[in-house]
């Protein structure tokens, strides 16, 4: 009887400790809004291509009538790509989105008209290296919420004491597939961009030791 009671107490203690650890860990992270397309202006100047000068570019606009089915969305970025403009291009934000916190993941609602193409996220790392992170194939119709891991792809830790390094989100890159229907018009929309972040840790002289602020 005593042994049984002690076992119950031990189980309750372990369960309580585990629950506390989960709550503490989840309390580190918070969700922040990176871009809602309500305060920024976008036009053809935000589009770039490496093709010859005079290549037709997509039509870019901000729409309050075509938004993702998410709470609070008032405006989305819409790209209409006519068949004669269905070439690779980059879309850059008017001003790069700079994030000083440690990013766990980024979530982006994306609309696709089911085209044979791919969309990537253009990011500048803390080492000023520009990389592309795959977001999604556009082979679907309607809105789809895309979540991409950042913590597993880039080193975000500060390497110098009191130097706050940051990651800059520059924009998107669109790449149509070779077997894309040449007569197809493509429609892409992007809505509120959010991120799950936490405060960065402060490095000590020993790089293997991290101390929370």
Layout of strands and helices, then pairs:
Layout: H1 2-26, E1 30-35, E2 47-48, E3 59-63, E4 76-81, E5 89-99, E6 102-113, E7 117-124, E8 130-137, E9 141-149, E10 167-176, E11 186-190, E12 193-198, E13 201-203, E14 210-212
Antiparallel strand pairs: 1-12, 2-5, 3-4, 4-11, 5-10, 6-9, 6-11, 6-12, 7-8, 7-10, 13-14
Account of the 3D structure:
By secondary structure, the protein is mainly beta. The chain has one domain: Jelly Rolls (Sandwich). The protein is built from one helix and 14 strands. Strands 1, 3, 4, 6, 9, 11 and 12 form a seven-stranded antiparallel beta sheet that branches. A five-stranded antiparallel beta sheet has the order 2-5-10-7-8, with no helix packed on it. A two-stranded antiparallel sheet has the order 13-14. The radius of gyration is 22 Å and the shape is globular. The N terminus and C terminus are likely disordered.
């Amino acid at each position: 009887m005593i042994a049984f009671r002690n076992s119950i107490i031990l189980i309750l203690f372990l369960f309580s400790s585990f629950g506390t650890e989960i709550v503490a860990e989840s309390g580190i992270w918070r969700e922040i809004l990176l871009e809602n397309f309500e305060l920024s202006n976008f036009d053809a100047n935000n589009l770039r291509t490496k093709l010859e000068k005079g290549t037709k570019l997509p039509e870019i606009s901000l729409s309050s009538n075509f938004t993702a089915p998410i709470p609070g969305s008032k405006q989305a970025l819409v790209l209409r790509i006519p068949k004669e403009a269905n070439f690779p291009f980059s879309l850059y934000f008017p001003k790069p989105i700079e994030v000083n916190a440690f990013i766990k993941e980024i979530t982006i609602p994306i609309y696709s008209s089911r085209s044979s193409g791919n969309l990537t996220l253009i990011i500048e790392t803390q080492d000023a290296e520009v990389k592309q992170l795959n977001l999604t194939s556009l082979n679907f119709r309607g809105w789809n919420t895309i979540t991409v891991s950042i913590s597993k792809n880039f080193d975000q830790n500060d390497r110098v004491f009191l130097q706050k390094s940051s990651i800059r989100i520059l924009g998107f890159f669109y790449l149509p597939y070779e077997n894309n229907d040449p007569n197809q018009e493509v429609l892409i929309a992007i809505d509120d961009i959010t991120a799950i972040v936490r405060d960065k840790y402060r490095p000590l002289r020993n790089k293997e030791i991290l101390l929370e602020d």
